[in-house]
Write a structure and sequence with these properties.
The protein has about 400 residues and is mainly α. It has 14 helices and 2 strands.
């Protein structure tokens, strides 16, 4: 990475992911039961606001994918984090669904932009031998934010939703100030237009699988706390606690799966992780929603749901020349965010029509299983290509 200080950059990435994804995006889920109970929004409106955030993520990822100019990363990251903090603080005012929708959309946009930007500015600039470690630190910020939201929200909700939103926004402000102080400067050069390359089938399969696993993750993003708190009648605190467990697993997943992939290979680890995620999603449906089954589902889906970011980027890095990695990672992120936004809208509509949580999680498990099959096929095609070469 040359003069670019590796761990200051990685910690800056962790804080950016914590604020924009962990708190602003995933921290919304354990708040939904309280928002509904306080009559801020109806249940269907609250879930649609969650889907709107995912639409913003798609917009942000697409914007970064299409941007070809020079990016001065530190001012860009600090500005996007500041906008995230503003959106969370503004959510403390109960001014209706349309008002809330503006801020949920904005947090989605900034989150999508930061995801692509931090991948290029931090992980993409790390030496190959340190890429898994740096990626694990950076993307662990998402799970850290989920865990902190799940632990803190039940303890501050008694003070009211405006105070809760304000404290979450304050945490985003603190993270922004830290990044402004410690993030080393770096510039991402302008991206020149290149001739269209031939389709690499293993890469294509991995990108499609990455999108499918987004479908598999959506019900835990949007409904997990509400499923436990409302449908299973365990209460808001229980919903938030299992969300915190999901966040703890999501925090530990990237570094753990990165180390496993360093030993066994990124593609094979990715396939195994997708199979595990499918099984964990179905566990409460097949064996009953007891505490053990809910914990297994939280841990399994949390570990893989965000750990796949490190595994997918590492798998693509092993299949592509360095000059094509950033562009292809942007395409993979766009695939993920597109299917995530579409499935969020679809799941929200399906839940509104049926009220059937089991159906949602069965569909999600099927998507993760399909992703595992595709990555297994990608591993075989890649091995065959190496043998032929």
């Amino acid at each position: 990475m040359g003069e670019f200080p590796l761990y200051r950059a990685a910690f800056s990435g962790l804080l950016a992911m914590l604020a924009s994804i962990g708190i602003a995006r995933f921290g919304y889920s354990p708040l939904v039961p309280a928002l509904v109970a306080a009559h801020w929004f109806s249940a269907s409106a609250a879930f649609w606001l969650g889907a709107l955030n995912l639409l913003g993520y798609l917009i942000g990822a697409a914007a970064m994918r299409s941007w070809r100019g020079v990016i001065d990363t530190k001012p860009a990251v600090v500005t996007l984090m500041a906008l995230t903090a503003l959106a969370v603080l503004a959510s403390a005012l109960n001014l209706g669904v349309a008002y809330a929708g503006i801020w949920r959309l904005l947090t989605g946009i900034t989150g999508g932009m930061l995801m692509v930007l931090m991948g290029a500015a931090v992980v993409g600039r790390a030496p190959e031998k340190s890429r898994g470690k740096v990626g694990g630190i950076t993307f662990a910020g998402m799970g850290t934010g989920i865990m902190l939201s799940g632990l803190v929200i039940p303890r501050i909700l008694p003070y009211g939703l405006p105070v809760t939103w304000s404290l979450l926004g304050g945490a985003c402000v603190v993270a922004t100030l830290f990044v402004a102080a410690i993030m080393p400067p770096a510039v991402i050069p302008a991206r020149a237009k290149t001739p269209r390359a031939a389709v690499n089938l293993p890469v294509l399969l991995i990108i499609i699988a990455y999108g499918l696993v987004a479908v598999g993750f959506v019900p835990h993003i949007l409904f997990w706390a509400s499923y436990i708190a409302l449908f299973l009648h365990r209460g808001i605190a229980a919903g938030a606690e299992f969300s915190a467990l999901l966040g703890l697993a999501a925090m530990l997943g990237p570094p753990i799966l990165g180390r496993i992939a360093d030993r066994f290979g990124f593609v094979i680890t990715l396939a195994a992780a997708y199979f595990a995620m499918s099984a964990a999603t179905l566990c409460p449906i097949l064996f009953g929603p007891g505490p053990l089954q809910l914990a297994i589902s939280s841990i399994g889906v949390g570990t893989v749901g965000l750990g796949v970011v490190v595994l997918t980027s590492g798998a693509l890095a092993g299949l592509l020349p360095a000059e094509r990695l950033a562009s292809t990672w942007g395409l993979a992120t766009l695939s993920y965010s597109t299917l995530q936004a579409l499935s969020a809208a679809g799941f929200s509509t399906l839940f509104h029509a049926t009220g059937n949580f089991s159906l949602l999680y069965t569909i999600a498990a099927s998507a993760s299983f399909s992703a595992a099959v595709l990555v297994t096929a990608a591993a075989r095609y890649a091995a065959a290509a190496r043998s032929a070469g």
